[in-house]
Amino acid sequence: MALTGIQIFKLLPGTNCKKCGVATCLAFAMNLASGKAELDKCPDVSPESREKLAAASAPPIRPVAIGYGETAIKVGGETVQFRHEKTFFNPTAIAALIEDTTPVSEIADKVKRYQKLQYSRVGLNLRPELVVIKGGANLADAAKAVVDNSDLSVVLYSEDPAALKAAAAVLEGKNPLIGPATKANLEQVAEVAKEAKVPVWIKATSLDEVGELTKALGAAGVKDIVIDSGARNAKDVFTDSINIRRAALVGGNRDYGFGTITFPCEMTNNLALEGAIATSLVAKYAGIVVLSDMDGAVVFPLLLERLNIFTDPQRPMTVVEGIYPINNPDENSPVLVTTNFSLTYFIVSGEVEGSRVPSWLLIKDCEGLSVLTAWAAGKFSGDDVGQFVLKRSNIVEKIKHKSVVIPGYAAAILGDMEEELPGWTVSIGPREAAHLPKFLKEYKTSGA
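^ thats the sequence. predicted structure below, dont judge the formating
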């Protein structure tokens, strides 16, 4: 049960040392209670108090790290049942299943193909992260083939503890998820996990058994756990996913406070139908969804759905402030400036790219507001945009001319822009992005 700010305050040193970044221990306690601070910020809290506070402030669903490098993921760590209450934090990982009987050369070809399924959107690189290797005798060789030919992280799928141990040794330092731990092999799999220092996934036959297995693993010294309820049809796995999340968040049951792994690949032989099942599981709490294969037509929609669901609903989607070259611009190419609202960026950049005119697109941080809204809020004013173009963007180092194009809807900032950019030509672009191709083809830079 969560502690109040006053209860937390009583466990803090009370020195008001300010090392945590706030003025008093009471203020820090209130921040801890509201989730705005982390306990590690207080260097002087006693070990006894730290233990009590850590247990009380632990998230209801334990975050579990899996994998390595760019494909490392976290499963769990969520704090709300519904996204509008706060936000969801750790996006559902997309995985493909490979049998360990698959020839090594074929595994290499598959994972190379999977690794190419990467898409740039909203300044982010969207891609699948995992490969699930299923089997026994050849598990280690198959795992080696995956990491030798891609940067994908690995989930091991075998009920043979010896096979898991051998494959985990091959993946040393790459933090694979191993399992399944079942009633029959739980103690042996727990020993492998503790020796390799890796997380474990359990496979149950019912929701009641889920609690029994997680409790048993915890008693065996394994804390990082991922749940497979054992359901292998769309209706049951969907229901189990909701009930597991609800038991942890609403019921406060720590035995169910873990992320989940689901297997659409074992529910149908149709990849498109697997994708349809996966869409419901991404929306309803699956930590990992495992497909039988990866194809752009299935993976791309899942990645977009995931992006939308795991975006903070209280903050607009944005792109990073900076210079975005389009169509290989040079020192004489036109310069356009707009806000960092992601929809604005994608519409404008798409039209500029479609024009085939080499251009520099400057994105100014306006806290994710569109052009009109940012202008009305004073975040896209003439003097500020002028200073951004002249000093903060560094575009002057890339061009020889002194010309810039502002959005048509921001025509009111023209005068202030000209004052901030003496000697520059400030042009008003079209109001609608669809008119940019014609505008750019007729536009000429000046002031070189």
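The chain has three domains: 5-57, 64-309, 322-442.
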